[in-house]
Every structure is written in structure tokens, then in C-alpha cells.
Amino acid sequence: MTLRPLAAALAAAGLALGTFAAPMSANAQSPSPVQAAPVPADGTLLSVSAQAEASRVPDVATLSAGVVTQAADANAALRANAEQMTRLMRAVRAAGIAERDVQTSGLNVHPQYRHSDNEAPTITGYQASNTVSLKVRDVAKLGDVLDALVASGANQVNGPSFEIDQPEAVYDEARRKALDLAQKRAAMYAESLGLRVRRIVSISEGGGFVRPMPQMRMVAMAADAVASPVSPGESTLSASLDVVFELGR
């Protein structure tokens, strides 16, 4: 009895199975992730962190203004507040502030209490407040805007804070400075090691930030108050980079 016919049949079956199995395996396989170019055996990786700043005179000021009124009952306090707030909004429009730059940020009515020893608090009246956030796009007119707000009845004013309306170009300047600083540091390390900078392997950017600026605050101002001159100074933006270099001979 010979086994050759049986072996031939098994071989044929295996070949047939292999013919169908290969495409199934290929279809189920997920694509390989993209990997960074390998570093040559004679190369050295250097990671450098660098931060730089760029400054501009701010061209936008933001502030909030509002009215606080008190009365014996909530409706009276709210009506008085609405009347004063209407005058305030007229002054805002007369100052040339666009509707898109005015936003209500707070409207509240709450009771006022009198506290006595060994007695429950008693309501003595109600206080209503209404506040709007304003964006002044002509910083040179900011002093006039503040005068107009107070003259129209605003007794709560907070701000201003200054910012750059289109900051991306300033961030780009800071990024270029940070990259230049990173390259100079890499060159220094390479020279110290007797090597040279071959290439940049990767660049990652950290969060940029604005250096805090002092804010002016005016609360419960009298109608005849004189606004102080406003100086916007400079706004400083920062960029931070992590750069990986390949060093070699």
C-alpha cells in the first residue's frame, strides 16, 4: 500500500487553504503606525526647551460697568435700576461702542438684611444690579468712555484690562525667537561635545501665555468724579518650544 496519493491530496488541500487564508490575514491586519526616521548609530539626540516673548502696544480694552440701586421692595429696586441702565446704554452707544462689543454679564435682585444679636435676620430692602461687559476698540478714547459711563449713572466700574486684538502675528514672532534660541543652544552643546547639529528631529509647542497686567478698579464712583488718564503700556505674549536635535560628527 502506498501513501503517495494521500500525501498528494493533503498537499493540494493545504495549498488551497493557503490560497484562501492569505487574503483573510491581509485584510484583518491594521496599517502600521508612521514612525520617526531612525537615528543613525553614530548620532546623539539632544532635547532643548526654549521660551521667548514678543510685545506690542495693546489696541483693545475691556471693562465692565453697571448700576446698583436699592429700594424697599424688589420691583421698585428693579425699576429704578432699569431707568438708570437705560441712560447708561445710551451713553455707551453715544461713545461709539458697537452692539457686538456690549454684553450683559450680570442681572441680580436680592434682599438686604439687618442682623441683630439673638434675632433672626430681617429684610430691610432690596438691591438690584445690572452689569455689562464692554470692549473698547479705540484705546485712545478709553478715558472719554469712562467719563461718559460715570456721568450717565454707572456706580460700578471694573477694569480696564488691555489685550491685542489680533495676537497671532505676535505669537509667531515669539515662536521664531524661541526657535532661534533653541538652535543656538543646540549649536553650543554640539560645539562643546566636538559634534555638529545634523538636523531637527521634532518640534513641539507648549502653551503660550500673556504676561499679567495690572488692572484699574473703580467702585461706587460719584457722578462728578474725574477720570484719571489711562496708559495701556505694552502687552507681552510668550511662546514655549521643545525641540529635539540630532547631533553627530
Give the structure's gist in a few sentences:
The chain is of the alpha+beta class and 249 residues long. It has four helices and nine strands; from the N terminus they run H-E-E-H-E-E-H-E-H-E-E-E-E.
What report would you give on this structure?
With 249 residues, the chain is α+β, with helices and mostly antiparallel strands. Helices cover 33% and strands 36% of the residues. It has helices at residues 4-28, 74-94, 142-151, 168-192, and strands at residues 44-56, 60-71, 102-114, 122-136, 156-163, 196-205, 209-210, 217-219, 235-248. A hairpin with a 7-residue loop joins strand 3 (102-114) and strand 4 (122-136). The longest helix is centred in the N-terminal third of the chain and has 25 residues, at 4-28. Residues 1-34 and 214-225 have low confidence and may be disordered.
Topology:
Layout lengths: L3 H25 L15 E13 L3 E12 L2 H21 L7 E13 L7 E15 L5 H10 L4 E8 L4 H25 L3 E10 L3 E2 L6 E3 L15 E14 L1
